[in-house]
Amino acid sequence: MISNDQWLAIIRELLRGSERTRRRAREVLWLEIFRYVVHRAKLPIGPLANDPDERREIALRVLQKLERNNYAHLREWEHRQCQRRNAAPWWGFVKVVAIHRAIEHARTSRLNLARRGEPFVWAIIEPIGYLSC
Fold first, then answer.
1. Are 38 and 55 in contact (CB under 8 A)?
2. Which of 87, 108, 114, 132 has a beta carbon 3.0–4.6 Å from 121's, enabling a disulfide?
3. DSSP state letter for 86
4. How far apart are CA 79 and CA 105, in angstroms?
């Protein structure tokens, strides 16, 4: 697993490197975050947490969030690391973003019957067999 210090170097390359190093850093970012969200992250979203397609969608939302506004969240994380002020470790930072994106995604799921602000209420979908005449 990539260490926090290594992530700091990767983020610096992504933000200020040459075109080639930025591209490589972005590839690492996408691969590692995608792998983390799809396979390892504990997401508080009920039955959606067991669906690989839903987890891939959440991973995409996490990456979009991190890339938004010219990598504003990554720039903020890097700044906090350099200042050693409120400096969350890399995977702690990603975990928080993933949980927020997962909850946002679950709130809009067709399986969630609860209104906004209420605890999730999950619909149970039971497949029915094919009936022959």
1. yes
2. 114
3. S
4. 28
Paired residues of 112 in beta bridges? 122
Least Cα distance to 8 among 59, 97, 67, 74 occurs for 74
3 closest CA partner among 11, 24, 74, 19 = 11
DSSP 114: S
Judge whether 33 and 59 are in contact, CB under 8 Å: yes
Residue 112: phi and psi, rounded to 5, are -90, 115
* pTM for the model: 0.83
As a dihedral over the C-alpha atoms of residue 30, residue 31, residue 36, residue 39, rounded to 10 degrees, the angle is 130
